[in-house]
Write a structure and sequence with these properties.
CATH architecture of the largest domain: Alpha-Beta Complex
CATH topology of the largest domain: 2-enoyl-CoA Hydratase, Chain A, domain 1
CATH class of the largest domain: Alpha Beta
Number of domains: 3
Radius of gyration: 25 Å
Number of helices: 16
Strand content: 15-25%
Largest sheet: 6 strands, antiparallel
Structural class: alpha+beta
CATH superfamily of the largest domain: 2-enoyl-CoA Hydratase, Chain A, domain 1
Shape: globular
Low-confidence stretches: 1-65, 217-240
Number of strands: 22
Helix content: 25-40%
Length: about 600
Amino acid sequence: MTCVSCDDESRWVECPHLRESIFSPVPTLLGMRTISSVQIRIFGLFYTRLFVIFGLLLLPVGVWAAMSVSDALRTSDTSPVSRGEFIRAAVQVLGITGEQQTKLPYRRVPKGLESFIKAAYAKDALVTFGKDLASARPITRGQALEIIVALQNVTAEPTEQYRDAKTSDALSRAVQAAIDNGWMEPQGSSLFGTKEVLTGKEGRIFLRKVLGEGGEQAPADDSVPTLEIHFTPSRMSTTTTSELPKAQILEALWKIVEQDYLYSDKVKSDEVAYSAAEAMVKSLGDPYSTFYRPASARAFQSRIQGEISGIGAQVEDREGVLTIVTPLPSSPAEKAGLKPNDEILSVDGVSIRGLSYEEMVDHVRGPKGSVAKLKVRRGGMEMDIEVTRDTIKVPEIDIKWQEDIAVVRLMQFGKLTETDLRAEMKHIQDQGPRGVILDLRNNPGGLLNVATLVSANFLPKGSDVVTIMSRAGDRVEVTEDAPVIDPSVPVVVLVNGGSASASEIVAAALQDAGRATIVGEQTYGKGTVQEVLEFNDKSSLKLTIAEWRSPLGHKIDGAGVKPDVAVASSDRDEQMMRAIELIKRGRR
């Protein structure tokens, strides 16, 4: 998620700066750049302010007085803790001293976290992140352990064997240290849970155990009064901040409604604010930019995290029509026969055309086991399709062998692909494959950095992957690691109309570099980049901030990637058969 203060590009977790913004009495309605109300305990607020004052006056730069765990890590119990939040909390509660002249290797570091990250980096505590800190992404249990072990300078020789703790010696030692010191419990006899995201409650328990304070503490006294505050964040930027258009009119409207509207009991301030925010974003006319109310934001995050409730299909809003991007593998949508580019016109006899994106999606969703009766338009013809709803966990990597040819199917570009694919590709290379087929059919995409990591398995170090064009300027993403698959091994990439976003980045990069032959059908054609900003009330904004082009400058948005060898979809999977044939003929 992008913080409006620190301008961090990373995603998914609430930025700490949003809790430290300038307070304003202006109603939320006027805050199109503001965040909705947040409740802060008065005594906790005073305590935090006093701590900062004393820290500034009495301590040298780079030194922090130890802070209580509950004050250092304020993430809600069930929300994921970001990497930056955990680093800051760990440095604060342990009272770590850091050299503030340290030069960090990371591309962008939020200013509010920079001093804490420097302190941890000086202790070699951030090795687990490699060259991509991405401070706003969720931290895993394993990463949190590695940080604490490094900050505490704890060593332990592994005696317990867990399947998810073998990715590095540092991780296995960190897991053993956690077991020896009683910091964290394994989640099973063979799995420790190193790849599970750390939640706020788990993080506080963990840090308290590290400090020797025991586990979860009693909840704070609910009788402490709370104060509702509306505030506006100030953006740390070199550009001039624009005022909200027609701000005086909006403010006047709000005051008049509050004072004079006859049915005052029907005035709901949150509804007014959210409706205004939705209208602002809708006025952009961009189907990929959306304001999410808290409930919708939670549903959106659950989809990104890989858990989808409903029919099991990735969908987009195309000019007011809910359109299938791709049904997920083995999902109710796939079993019912839904296909990419199917347009959903109505659900259970109720038309959804012209509704907002979230309203259309809400109509399709429903309890597990219920039946969604869909009217679908495909190629100009309308048909009725019934789909039994379910909860679907989205897999990411599936590897099979066709004789001596490795077939690597990626279902999305998410966390598992980021952490596991490279090791899997090394294992494939060790088998001496005759060729590799990268199957990206019906892969709707995912995270930009993961697309770069996937490409790095095949391209030389330093190869261009994608050019990102934004209002801030252009930048080129390049591979930072040597290829895993030998350059002599032929590679074929399978794509179709359900291959979108990150799938298209990888296909275009390998095509432009002449490293792979693209086989199948023209891809979806989504060539824009969205960032997600989450506010303190858990509402969020997904906003288009850039367009990307292939390394040779080919436009993808609305055009897609054209295959080198066009093969239509068929029940016999002629696309796969053609890919195998090309590899056996030795074509790249």
